[in-house]
Design goal:
heterodimer, A: 261 residues, mainly alpha, MetI-like fold, 2 domains, B: 288 residues, 77% helix, globular
């Protein structure tokens, strides 16, 4: 009996997690003119309205560019640091690890305020640059955690074999280490991109007037009322943030499989 | 240069870009706002550089700030308790079931990938005046007019639980997986009933995971800004809302610095207490 109760409550927990999201997707296809309940029929009208909304398209482009640049910079920093921590015995390694994940331990609001005030003091005003710096520092710990976990699995002797066969360190890195690292790099980039694409608290502090990312655009639209376009945008975002990593994970697995063959 | 010396330098070359970024974009800015918190915003809108204690005195003595701080901690506490009560059975089920664990865990991770703001606002579709719940109640004839169920403390906690529950479940799951299943079997074979085995063996051994999940839920919940704005009413402001108000709306940056430092001091001391007794290792395990 006890076990059935646990099973039942687990099902309820999963329903609790997914039902609200399912309702967003359901409503985004609703033909009803207010886009709310009751469901009156199936329609793409809100997606059409979304595609014609220039503010949202602009926000989408900003978010894509920001997420892309963030993931490149943050992953570069994170992979180099992880390599050092996993491959070498660094004095004070524990302290350095803590320092690298410190941005998670600081409440996001405080991190946002500190960066805004400091960069402003240095005469860098609110700008795309400040957004990028903020997103890099905010995503770095996640990249370090993900990449480190993957790096531990890569053995050192393959590199040593290459070197002993006469490869230079640079050759070894590009021909041996980097291909072996590819899945970790890929996972880090994906993670950084998704977190950056989804971030709102820090973004609200750092974004210059007139620049919106997708989450801040949704936030601004929510202030008026919940328009059905937001549900359509929600569906698109769910596809992006769930669909893209799933496809990404499949690609990463294929790369890993190819290497092991 | 000798090979040993080069070997010793290499990790620092690899680490330097990341460490420099953390130093310049996090540590130095944090020290900077400590300095900034003693400046004063004058009526002309310029910052008066100096050593003024006015802002600190106001925040520490004014009952308004204390009330919001307590309200913030209270909301975070209730959120943590609800997450633990909902999360423990689910984590236990995943850890001990014969079903496909990978799929269940993947499903649990999915919400992490779904936009936070979308998940938060999705509750408006459920509980709003024209939301699913009201529509349902009207259609079965329980009520005639829709009820406003949103914009109160309960919906803020609901939104936070929805956001933080996966953190709790994953942390408990990790510690349940670590338990040697033989211990439970031994207790059973020695005659302990299942509930007693759970209370005296499984639950104590899973406490580190519960504590790690609890810490994450509490700290992330107490630092939240968006959820009270979207799902709370005017009286449900949390401490991060005060910070936003001071920095972005009133442009009183010295005051905003003071409020930020109070928030990080309170949450930081909770993390330190946790670290003192349990260490960060468990937390890392749950995060990666």
């Amino acid at each position: 009996m006890g076990w059935n109760l646990i099973r039942f409550s687990t099902i309820l927990v999963y329903l609790f997690m997914f039902l609200p999201v399912a309702v967003v997707v359901l409503l985004s296809f609703n033909a009803n003119q207010f886009g709310s309940f009751p469901i009156t029929g199936f329609s793409f009208r809100w997606f059409v309205a979304l595609a014609e909304n220039e503010a949202i398209i602009r926000a989408f482009k900003t978010s894509l560019l920001l997420g892309f640049l963030t993931s490149i910079i943050s992953t570069t920093l994170g992979v180099l640091a992880s390599l050092a921590l996993v491959r070498y015995k660094v004095p004070g390694g524990n302290f350095i690890s803590t320092l690298l994940i410190a941005p998670i331990l600081v409440p996001e609001v405080v991190l946002a305020v500190a960066l805004l005030l400091f960069l402003n003091f240095l005469s860098f005003h609110k700008s795309f640059f400040m957004l990028l710096m903020g997103h890099v520092i905010f995503t770095l710990p996640f990249v370090v955690l993900v990449v480190q976990a993957r790096l531990i699995g890569i053995r050192r002797d393959v590199e040593e074999a290459a070197m002993s066969l006469g490869a230079t360190p640079v050759q070894t890195f590009f021909q041996i280490t980097l291909p072996l690292l590819a899945p970790a790099v890929f996972a880090g980039m994906l993670f950084a991109f998704t977190i950056s694409f989804d971030d709102i608290t820090g973004t609200l502090f750092w974004k210059p007037g007139g620049v919106e990312t997708v989450p801040t655009q949704i936030f601004a639209m929510l202030r008026n009322s919940i328009s059905p376009e937001i549900n359509a945008l929600g569906s698109v975002m769910i596809f992006f943030t769930v669909g893209v990593p799933l496809i990404g994970a499949a690609i990463a697995r294929r790369i890993a499989n190819k290497q092991s063959q | 240069m000798s090979i040993e010396k080069r070997e010793a330098r290499q990790p620092w070359i690899l680490l330097s870009p990341a460490l420099t970024s953390i130093l310049l974009l996090l540590i130095v800015p944090l020290i900077f706002i400590v300095v900034y918190s003693f400046w004063l915003r004058t009526a002309t809108g310029a910052d008066q550089v100096g050593f003024y204690l006015e802002n600190w005195a106001e925040v520490l003595s004014d009952a308004f700030y204390r009330e919001i701080l307590f309200q913030t901690l209270w909301i975070a506490f209730l959120t943590t308790v609800v997450c633990a009560l909902m999360g423990y059975p689910a984590a236990y089920f995943i850890a001990r079931s014969n079903g496909n664990k990978a799929v269940m865990l993947l499903l649990l991770m999915l919400p992490f990938w779904i936009s936070y703001i979308i998940r938060t606002m999705s509750w408006i579709n459920i509980l709003g005046v024209s939301g699913a719940f009201n529509t349902f109640l009207i259609s079965i004839g329980v009520i005639d007019e829709p009820i406003q169920m949103l914009y109160n403390q309960v919906t803020v906690i609901l939104g936070l639980v929805h956001f933080l529950l996966p953190f709790m479940i994953l942390n408990i799951y990790v510690s349940l997986e670590d338990i040697d299943i033989n211990l439970e079997d031994a207790a059973c074979s020695l005659g302990a009933p299942r509930w007693k085995t759970f209370l005296e063996v499984t639950l104590p051994l899973s406490l580190p995971g519960l504590a790690a999940g609890g810490l994450l839920c509490f700290v992330l919940g107490a630092g939240t800004y968006i959820t009270p704005v979207i799902l709370g009413g005017p009286r449900d402001a949390m401490f991060a809302n005060l910070v936003f108000e001071a920095i972005i709306t009133q442009l009183d940056w010295p005051m905003g610095s003071v409020l930020s430092l109070v928030l990080i001091a309170v949450l930081g001391s909770i993390v330190l207490v946790y670290n003192r007794f349990l260490g960060m290792r468990q937390l890392m395990k749950g995060l990666s």
